[in-house]
Design brief:
Length: 173
Amino acid sequence: MSENSPLYRAVYDQVDAKTALEKVWPKSEAAKPFLLVYSPEFCRFATFEDVDDARIFEFRCFCEEYELRWVREGSKDKGKAVLLSEKEGHDLKGISYVFSRSDQYLLWGKTEKNKETGNGETVLFDHRIGSLRVPIETRGNRVYLHFKEYFSEDEYGNLVLKAERCLALKEKT
């Protein structure tokens, strides 16, 4: 069992994607979070400017400090955003949980030879899924998505997943 750090959450209703993202996007280039966007046509890592794409119905913006999720509601450009963090901040309310654990998912694909972009990205490729650009540079190794899960106890004593937070993309070492 891991030691419990506090978990905080803020909910923003009826907000467009760009406005939601502006709440957390850093003003400097130094430590940009990862941004994973979803549409009926694609799932990919993106930039701040990409959230203006009308096809996007969901995104997850994450780094070690927080995760911001946004989901379009209805056919308009508005949706619901939820911010999760272990650091206190404006608008954040505490969430109770009894157990947390960190783990990682392996992203499909290996680094394509001659496909390092040189701009902080790597292209992963696998014949089953095609190419995926990831916003980290690698030395030809696999890439993992690190995450943390938070569990609470239900009325029968069972652990129930309360929240999940993506943390980072890291190269396998």
